[in-house]
TrEMBL record, chain A:
Domain Histidine kinase: 687-909
Record's bilayer topology term: Multi-pass membrane protein
Subcellular location: Membrane
Organism, as annotated: Halomonas cibimaris
Name assigned to this protein: histidine kinase
Membrane-crossing residue ranges in chain numbering: 6-24, 36-56, 68-87, 114-133, 167-183, 195-222, 251-269, 290-315, 386-409, 415-442, 449-471, 504-526
UniProt keywords, alphabetically: ATP-binding, Coiled coil, Kinase, Membrane, Nucleotide-binding, Phosphoprotein, Transferase, Transmembrane, Transmembrane helix, Two-component regulatory system
Highest taxon above the source species: Bacteria
Reaction catalyzed: ATP + protein L-histidine = ADP + protein N-phospho-L-histidine
UniProtKB/TrEMBL annotation, chain B:
Organism domain of life: Bacteria
The protein's name in its UniProt record: Uncharacterized protein
Keyword Transmembrane helix found: yes
Membrane-spanning residues: 15-34, 46-64
C-alpha cells in the first residue's frame, strides 16, 4: 500500500474528487440552487483554519510545549462567540459594498483608497507566503515519511535541483488545480460556491482521518486512555510534559498567543474569505458560532494522546511533527497511514486553495488593476474585455504565489518547525486587526492613521520575527539575534528594548501592535478625513443600523448611455442587463441613450464594478463618467438622524393617538349615557306631569264647582269634598312615590337594615290588606311556614313592598272570583316570598316591562272602579329589594294560573344555624 | 415591537457574558490554580481546558439554538 505509484494515484484521485465536488457546487450555484446554503457547510468551510499545521504540527507542539497548542483553537472559539456581533457586521458590509477580500474591505472603509488596498494586499502576500510554504513542506515531508519509513525522511528531501524536488511539482499541480476551479469565471460578488463545497468536504476528510488515527493509537496500540496515561505517569522522563511550565513565556506567553489567535482568526486572508466574502446567509453565523468551535474541539481531542504515545514509544529519532504518520506505520497498519496522508493532504490543499484564491483576487484587484487603470492601458474597445484581463491576471498571480511559497520553502523552510512558520504568519496577519476591527466601530479612524499603523506594525513584525528567521536559517549573520544589529544590544530582535524572557511571538505581537494601534489612533486623531472617507466610515460603523441606505447614493449626473457603455466595456452584456434590471430602470437603451441615469442606477453600476474590480478601481471608473459627488457624510448622517427621529416621532404620535382614541371612546360612552339619562328624565317628567295633572284637574274642577255654585245641596257638596280629599291623597301618595323613586335612583334612599322575620312581616302585611280585600271579595290565602324566616332588611320598606304586591295581585285577580295566594318558602340559602293571583297573567314579553316606571298593564276592564296605581309601585319595590341584596321578578303562577311576583332575599348572614334548623321543619 | 427587541438584546447580553466567562476560563489565573493541583504529568490541566471548552461550546449551542427556535416562532 505504500508503493510510490499507489500513493500518487490516491493523491490525484483525491484531488479529482475535490474537483468534481467543486464543479458540482458551481453548477448548482449557476442553477440557482446553492449547494452551500446550510449553516453546517458554512461552519465546515471555516474549518479551513485547520491546516497541515494543525494536522501534523499540533502533535509536535504538544510533545514539546504542553497545552500551548490549544491556544490556537481557544482563540477562534472566543472569536466565534463574538461572531454574531462582529462578523455579522462585516458580512453585512461586505454584501452591501460587494467586498471581494480583506484588502478591499480595509480600502473601502477608508474612503475606497487604492493606496491602502495595495498596502494591505502586499502585506497579505508577504505574511502568507511562509504559511503556504509550510503546507508544501507538510505535503512533501509526509509523503517522504510514508514512502521511506522506517528510514528517516530527511534523506529523501535533500534534492540537489528543483526539478526533482517534489514540493515544486506539488506547487505546480496545485496551481493548475486552483486555476481550474478557482478562476473559471468572474462572479459579480466574487463568490466561489464550488470551492466552498470542496473545502467543506476537505474539512470532513481531515477530521475523519485525524479521529481515525487517534482512535487507533489510543484503543489499538494502547488499551484505552487509562492505560496510556498510566504508562505516561510511570515514566519519569515524561513528568510535567503537559504542565504549564512547558508553555513558552509562561502566563504572559499564554495570554499573548491567545490574543494572537483571536486576532489572526479574523484577519487571515483565507479566514476573511470564508467567513465574510463566501458567506451566503447572515443567519448561518449563529449556528457556526458553536459548530465550528465543536469541530476544533474534536480535531484536537486526540492530539495529546498521540503526542504522549509518540514520546512513550521512544520516538527519539522521529520528528514529533510526524507522529501522526509514524505511529500507525510503526504499529504496522496498512491502510491507516494512507488515510492519514490523505487527511494531511486535505488540510494542506484546502488552505492553499482558499489562501491562493483570496490572494490572487487581492493581487489583481488591489495591485495590478489600479496600476493598469492609472496608465489608461485598459481603456480598450470591445465588450467584456475586463473579465478576460482579470482572469488572466489572477491565473498568473496564482502561479506566482504558489511558486513564491515554494521558493520560501526551498530556501529557508527547513530551519523552522511547522508551528513556528504558522505563528510568524499569524502575527503578520494580526497587523490588520486595528484597521479592520477598530475601523468597524470608531468613525474617527482615518486613512492616514490606518496607513501609518499598518506600516509601523508591519515593519516591527518584519524586524522582530521575519529577519531573525532569516538569520536562523543562515541567510543573515546569527549575531543579529544574539548581539543585536551592529552590536547594539537593546535592538536585539527577540528582546527589543531589553524586553527579555518573553516568547518571541508575544514579544513581537506586543511591539508591533503597540506601534500599530498607537500610530493608528494617534494619526487618526490629528488628520482630517475626506468627504468620501467620512461617508464610508459612517456606512461601516452604522452598518447594523436598520435605516442605513444600502450604499452611498450618487448625486452626480451622467447619461444612461455613458454608464451602459462603461459597464459593457468592463463587464460584458450580461452584466449590464442585470444592472439595469436590478435598478428597476428598464433595459439598456444602447450607447446613444441620453436620458439621465438615476442615482440608484449609478450606485448599482458601481457595485457591479466593485464586485469584479474592487471598490477603489470601481470608484475610479465611475468617476470617469459621472460628474458630481457621492452623497456626502452630512447627508448620510442626516438620513440616519432623521429616520431615527422620525421613528421616535412616529412612536410618540402613535402613543398619543391611541390615548386620544381611548379618551374619545370614554367620552363618547359618557355622552351616550348622558343622552340616555336626559331622554329618560324628559320621559319621566312628561309622565310625572301627566300623572300629577289628572288628580289636580279633578280637584280643581270640583273646587271650582263648590266655589262658583252656592246653591248646592249638602250631599252633593259633601260628595265633591270627598272626591277632592281622595284625589289629594292620591296626589300626595304619588308625590311620595316619586320622591322615593328619586331617592332610590340617586342612591340617597336610607334603609335601616336589621334582622327581621320575613314570615312575621308577611303576616302583618296580610293583616293590613285583609280588610280591603274582604271588601272587594278577594279570597286571600297565606302559606307562611312555621318558623321564623330571618333576613336582613328594613321592616317598613319591606312591608311597603309586600303590601304593594298584595295590592297589585288584588287588582289583577279574576273579576268574578278573585283569589290571591301568598307563600313563603326557602330556596337554598334564600327565602322566596311569592304573591300569586288568578287573573289573566302577564305575557312573557311584558314580564320585565312591568318593572318600568309608569308602566301600566292594559286594563280591559278599567271601569270596574278599582283604584288605578301610579305605575311606580313595582319600580320602587324592585329598587328597594335590590338595595337589600335581593331580587324581584314576575313569572307565571303555578298554583292559581295567573301572574306571580316573587321576592327573594338572602338569609341573614350571621344566623345560618337557626335558618338551617328552620329548614329542617 | 418592544418585546422582541428586548429579548434580542437580552440574548446578546447572555452571549457577551459567555464570551467573557470563556476568556476567563481559558486564562492564567484559573489555569494556574488547576495546574498547581495537578499530578506529575499535568494531564489535569489539559482535561480542565477540554472540559471548560466543551462547556462553553454547549452553552453557546444552547443559546444559539434556542434563539433560532424563538426566531422561528415570531
Amino acid at each position: 500500500m505504500r508503493h510510490e505509484a499507489f500513493i500518487l494515484a490516491a493523491a490525484f484521485g483525491y484531488l479529482a474528487l475535490l474537483f468534481v465536488v467543486a464543479a458540482w457546487g458551481d453548477r448548482r450555484a449557476e442553477a440557482g440552487r446553492s449547494a452551500i446554503g446550510s449553516p453546517t457547510v458554512y461552519a465546515l468551510s471555516i474549518a479551513v483554519y485547520c491546516t497541515a499545521w494543525t494536522f501534523y504540527g499540533s502533535v509536535g507542539r504538544a510533545s514539546s510545549q504542553g497545552p500551548h497548542f490549544l491556544l490556537i483553537y481557544l482563540g477562534p472559539t472566543l472569536a466565534m462567540l463574538a461572531a454574531p456581533f462582529v462578523i455579522r457586521k462585516m458580512v453585512r458590509i461586505a454584501a452591501r459594498q460587494r467586498i471581494t477580500s480583506i484588502a478591499d474591505f480595509i480600502s473601502a472603509r477608508y474612503g475606497k483608497s487604492a493606496g491602502l488596498g495595495a498596502v494591505v494586499a502586499l502585506m497579505a502576500l508577504i505574511t502568507s507566503t511562509p504559511y503556504i510554504a509550510l503546507q508544501l513542506k507538510a505535503i512533501t515531508v509526509s509523503h517522504a515519511v510514508l514512502v521511506n519509513y522506517p528510514a528517516p525522511a530527511d534523506a529523501a528531501l535533500d534534492q540537489p535541483s528543483f526539478w526533482i524536488d517534489k514540493s515544486f511539482w506539488v506547487a505546480l499541480v496545485l496551481a493548475v488545480f486552483i486555476i481550474l476551479f478557482g478562476t473559471r469565471h468572474l462572479d459579480a460578488s466574487e463568490r466561489h460556491e464550488g470551492m466552498v463545497a470542496a473545502i467543506a468536504v476537505e474539512s470532513l476528510v481531515k477530521l475523519v482521518a485525524f479521529l481515525a488515527v487517534g482512535i487507533f493509537v489510543v484503543f489499538v496500540m494502547f488499551n484505552g486512555p487509562g492505560d496510556l496515561f498510566g504508562q505516561v505517569a510511570s515514566t519519569p522522563a515524561l513528568s510535567q510534559v503537559l504542565g504549564l511550565e512547558q508553555v513558552p513565556g509562561g502566563a504572559t506567553g499564554w495570554v499573548g498567543v491567545l490574543i494572537l489567535a483571536v486576532l489572526a482568526f479574523l484577519t487571515l486572508p483565507r479566514q476573511f474569505q470564508v467567513l465574510v466574502v463566501e458567506n451566503v446567509d447572515e443567519t448561518h453565523i449563529d449556528r457556526a458560532s458553536w459548530v465550528f468551535p465543536l469541530y476544533l474541539l474534536l480535531i484536537n481531542l486526540f492530539v495529546v494522546p498521540i503526542a504522549l504515545a509518540g514520546l512513550l514509544l521512544g520516538g527519539d529519532g522521529a520528528d514529533p511533527d510526524s507522529f501522526v504518520l509514524t505511529l500507525p506505520l510503526a504499529a504496522g497498519a496498512e491502510a491507516l497511514p494512507l488515510l492519514v496522508f490523505i487527511g494531511g493532504l486535505s488540510a494542506a490543499t484546502g488552505m492553499m486553495i482558499v489562501e491562493t484564491i483570496a490572494l490572487s483576487t487581492m493581487v489583481s484587484n488591489q495591485l495590478v488593476m489600479p496600476l493598469l487603470l492609472r496608465f489608461q492601458r485598459l481603456h480598450l474597445s470591445g465588450t467584456g474585455r475586463l473579465a478576460a484581463w482579470l482572469l488572466g491576471i489572477r491565473r498568473v498571480a496564482i502561479v506566482v504565489i504558489l511558486l513564491l511559497g515554494y521558493v520560501y520553502h526551498a530556501l529557508i523552510g527547513d530551519a523552522y518547525s511547522l508551528v513556528t512558520i504558522g505563528l510568524v504568519s499569524f502575527v503578520g496577519a494580526a497587523q490588520f486587526a486595528p484597521a479592520l476591527l477598530v475601523g468597524l466601530y470608531w468613525r474617527g479612524a482615518t486613512r492616514a492613521g490606518a496607513l501609518w499603523g499598518l506600516g509601523a506594525g508591519f515593519c516591527l513584525w518584519g524586524y522582530t520575527l521575519l529577519l531573525p528567521g532569516f538569520a536562523q536559517s543562515g541567510w543573515l549573520d546569527a549575531a543579529l539575534i544574539h548581539q543585536g544589529p551592529l552590536g547594539v544590544g537593546w535592538l536585539k530582535p527577540y528582546a527589543l528594548f531589553g524586553l527579555e524572557g518573553w516568547d518571541i511571538y508575544t514579544h513581537a505581537l506586543l511591539w508591533s501592535l503597540l506601534a500599530n494601534l498607537g500610530l493608528f489612533v494617534g494619526v487618526s486623531l490629528f488628520t482630517r478625513p475626506t468627504a468620501l472617507e467620512q461617508t464610508q466610515a459612517a456606512l461601516f460603523t452604522e452598518a447594523l443600523h436598520p435605516n442605513l441606505p444600502s450604499a452611498s447614493l450618487w448625486q452626480g449626473q451622467t447619461t444612461r448611455g455613458e454608464l451602459g457603455g462603461l459597464l459593457r466595456r468592463y463587464l460584458g452584456d450580461a452584466a449590464i442587463e442585470r444592472v439595469f434590471v436590478d435598478a428597476g430602470d428598464g433595459g439598456d437603451g444602447g450607447d446613444g441613450d441620453s436620458r439621465a441615469a438615476s442615482p440608484r442606477l449609478i450606485t448599482r453600476a458601481e457595485q457591479a464594478l466593485a464586485g469584479s474590480l474592487g471598490n477603489a478601481s470601481a470608484r475610479v471608473l465611475i468617476n470617469s463618467v459621472v460628474r458630481g459627488e457621492a452623497l456626502d457624510l452630512a447627508s448620510i448622517l442626516s438620513i440616519l438622524d432623521t429616520t431615527s427621529q422620525t421613528l421616535e416621532y412616529n412612536r410618540r404620535l402613535e402613543q398619543k393617538s391611541a390615548e386620544l382614541e381611548r379618551a374619545s371612546e370614554a367620552l363618547r360612552q359618557a355622552n351616550d349615557r348622558l343622552r340616555e339619562l336626559d331622554r329618560l328624565k324628559d320621559e319621566f317628567i312628561a309622565t310625572v306631569s301627566h300623572e300629577l295633572r289628572t288628580p289636580l284637574t279633578s280637584i280643581r274642577a270640583f273646587a271650582e264647582i263648590l266655589h262658583g255654585d252656592d246653591g248646592l245641596d249638602a250631599d252633593r257638596r259633601r260628595h265633591f269634598l270627598d272626591v277632592i280629599v281622595h284625589e289629594s291623597q292620591r296626589l300626595s301618595r304619588l308625590i311620595e312615590e316619586i320622591l322615593d323613586l328619586a331617592r332610590l335612583e340617586s342612591g340617597r334612599l336610607t334603609l335601616n337594615p336589621e334582622h327581621l322575620d320575613l314570615a312575621v312581616l308577611a303576616q302583618r302585611s296580610v293583616d293590613a290588606v285583609a280588610q280591603l280585600h274582604r271588601q272587594r271579595g278577594i279570597a286571600l290565602a297565606a302559606e307562611l311556614g312555621d318558623g321564623p324566616a330571618t333576613v336582613t332588611g328594613d321592616a317598613d320598606r319591606l312591608e311597603q313592598v309586600i303590601i304593594n304586591l298584595l295590592d297589585n295581585a288584588g287588582k289583577f285577580a279574576d273579576r268574578h272570583a278573585p283569589e290571591v295566594l301568598i307563600r313563603l318558602e326557602r330556596h337554598r340559602n334564600r327565602y322566596r316570598l311569592s304573591v300569586e293571583d288568578n287573573g289573566p297573567g302577564i305575557s312573557p314579553e311584558e314580564r320585565e316591562r312591568v318593572f318600568d316606571k309608569f308602566h301600566q298593564l292594559q286594563h280591559n276592564d278599567d271601569k270596574r272602579g278599582r283604584p288605578r296605581g301610579s305605575g311606580l309601585g313595582l319600580a320602587i319595590s324592585r329598587g328597594i329589594v335590590a338595595h337589600l341584596g335581593g331580587r324581584l321578578w314576575a313569572d307565571a303562577g303555578p298554583r292559581l294560573g295567573g301572574a306571580r311576583l316573587t321576592l327573594e332575599l338572602p338569609l341573614a348572614a350571621d344566623e345560618p344555624a337557626e335558618a338551617a334548623m328552620n329548614s329542617g321543619h | 415591537m418592544t418585546t422582541p427587541l428586548r429579548q434580542r438584546s437580552r440574548r446578546g447580553e447572555r452571549l457577551g457574558a459567555l464570551l467573557v466567562a470563556a476568556a476567563i476560563l481559558f486564562s492564567p489565573p484559573l489555569l494556574l490554580v488547576v495546574d498547581r493541583m495537578a499530578s506529575a504529568t499535568g494531564i489535569e490541566g489539559v482535561l480542565y481546558l477540554f472540559g471548560a471548552w466543551a462547556g462553553v461550546i454547549g452553552l453557546a449551542a444552547w443559546l444559539m439554538e434556542s434563539r433560532r427556535a424563538r426566531g422561528r416562532d415570531r
